[in-house]
Amino acid sequence: MAILEAVNLKKSFGGVVAVDNLSFSVETGQIKSIIGPNGAGKTTVYNLITGLLPPTSGLIRFNGQTITGLKTHTIASLGLARTFQNVRLFENMTVLENVMVGCHQRMGSGLFSAICRLPKFRREEKQTAAVALEKLALVGLADQSQRPAFSLPFAQQRTLEIARALAAEPRMILLDEPAAGLNSHETVQLGKLILKIRQMGLTVLLVEHDMELVMDISEEILVINYGKKIAEGKPAEIQDNQEVIKAYLGEDFKGR
Amino acid sequence: MAKNLRKLPSGRWGIAIFILCLALFPLLTVNNPYYINVMVFVGINTIIVVGLNLLMGYAGQISLGHAAFYGIGAYCSGLLTAKYGCSPWLALPAAVALTASVAYLIGLPTLRLKGHYLAMATLGFGMVVYIVLRQLSWLTGDSSGLMGIPGISIGRFKLDTDLKYYFLVWTMAVGVLMLSRNIVNSRIGRALRAVEGSETAARTLGVDTARYKLQVFALSAAYAGLAGFLYAHFMGFIGPSTFGFKFSIELVTMVVVGGMASIWGSVLGAAFLTILPECLRVAEDYDIVIYGLLLMVVMIFMPKGLTRTTVDLLKSRWTASPVSQTNEE
User: Fold this and answer.
1) Both A47 and A57 in a single domain?
2) Residues A61, A176: one domain?
3) A52, A97, A147, B28: most buried, per Cβ within 10 A?
4) Is A104 within 8 Å of chain B by CB?
């Protein structure tokens, strides 16, 4: 069953068409990647899915429900989380607090109970901190929980972003170039983490330029260029696709 | 760093010591009621600055019109009591509710704006309120202002001296401080700080950022309304010039000088910039020059504000303490 479906998705900025009549679907529980040259419209697709941008036309269904036109935070509450190409942490908060913001939806306490520090509030704070720590442990950042987020090395900032997204307990996570700026060892670790996330039952959509990572972990790949789909299929098929090689992978990638 | 700062002075001990200092302060000034008078203003300004800091420092939204909310609170309470004979204790919730509601309505369209545009919009709002207060003279009194605002009494106990009023103002100020501290370290507070960190990221995590921005805007206005109430009944008369653009800017300066996103910084900022002009009176005509220069020096050498710079300085002295370990980089 498809958890995410995009139908004839189109987005134009003035005269520039960033996403052009794009249709694709992501099956529940799979790791799917979107690849393509810079400026192909990958991040725009993410922004359309998460409601940060309204599509010019077309629609997106998540879990059978049409989510185009919904507000970003509503879409998030349906179980769709994401990370960002340029890491967007809450820099002045601690690592733990960052992840606790991810738990926002699942907590219920409002202004009143916070002001009065009701027992219910304290209990919820404790539980949330525990859940957040659990997520941090999952990505290997538990020992850094009290550090201010901005003081983390870059690679850990990326994994913190993933932990924060996971704290929302999503059904699906969209990762936007999570390996950008990571060294090869860190990238291997990231690959393992993504597989672990899939094992937890999440669906993963990945936008990434690191082809080794993409080919290693994806079950399916969607290739776009100038906002259009140029190929879709299993990693092996994509590697042999002439059009993909011409537009993106380059001749020397063949036969790897 | 931010977390440590919040932990260090804002623990229960911090509050206890702070309250003790406030309670003992009048003993030092038996012979000089003028100090008490200044401290009343420090308290009133603290209340506004804490609210503005929640909005600016924590949620990252600017307001250049906060003096207007202060004015709305003052005039609401002043009019209800002086003209319509209402009890101040009934006027208080009315003043707070009115300022919060006005902020809510103003915030609905303006909080969609960001950065400079929000600054402009709130600036415009402040000016509109100022002009209305001036021009609506049939209601708000002539240019000399609204007179005959009664003092406050608790039961039969009249708060008729500066000292008694000092205790009222600071009780409320401490209440506001503790309330704000509780908000900051809660789900809502984290959501606000997330808006400041990255509104986009906050939204993708399911935080209804528009709603929380509006809530904190209304809350900070409510604080200003409370301060306006305290001001009106302390002075006994109010005029529009108190609530103009200049004071809005002063409030923002207090937030920045004290320290953005710091509850205690708000107290320090309000105290520093309320007391400083009083001290500079000895310089007579040059006071405004020295005031300006001092502000420049503070901002150049303490860009994070008084509190944070002081705490950092203390920490660097105690390099052996475990706190500083998490504070590197």
Assistant:
1) yes
2) yes
3) A97
4) yes
The domain in which residue B249 lies consists of 2-26+34-327
Confidence of residue A255 (pLDDT cuts 50, 70, 90): low
Judge whether A200 is closer than 8 Å to chain B, CB to CB.
no
Q: Which of B193, B208, B328 sits opposite A93 (nearest CB)?
A: B193
Number of domains in chain A: 2
State the ipTM, two decimals.
0.93
Pull the structure tokens for residue A191. Answer: 């690959």
> What is the spatial distance between Cα A67 and Cα A125, in angstroms, rounded to a whole number?
31
Taking the CA of residue A124 and the nearest CA in chain B, the distance in Å comes to: 9
A162 inside domain: yes
Q: Distance (Å, rounded) from C-alpha B57 to C-alpha A247?
A: 47
In angstroms, what separates the C-alpha of B64 from chain A's closest C-alpha? 24
pTM of the model as a whole: 0.91
Number of domains in chain B: 1
What single string gives the DSSP state of each residue in B226-246?
A: HHHHHHHHHHS-B-GGGGSHH
Cα angle A185, A186, A191; round to 5:
100
List for chain A the helix, strand, coil content (%; round to 5).
45, 25, 30
For chain B (length 329 residues), average pLDDT per consecutive 10?
43 85 87 89 98 96 96 97 95 98 97 93 96 87 82 90 94 96 93 95 96 96 98 95 94 94 94 92 84 87 85 71 42
Do A209 and A164 lie in a common domain? no
Rounded to a whole number of angstroms, the distance from the CA of B136 to the nearest CA of chain A is: 36
Complete DSSP assignment for B39-83: HHHHHHHHHHHHHHHIIIIIT----S-HHHHHHHHHHHHHHHHHT
Does A191 fall in a domain?
no
Domain encompassing residue A52: 1-79+171-182+197-256
Query: Quick check: is A188 in a domain?
Result: no
Instruction: Give a yes or no: residue A187 inside a domain.
Output: no
Task: Determine the pLDDT at residue A113.
Answer: 83
Q: Does A85 touch chain B (CB under 8 A)?
A: no
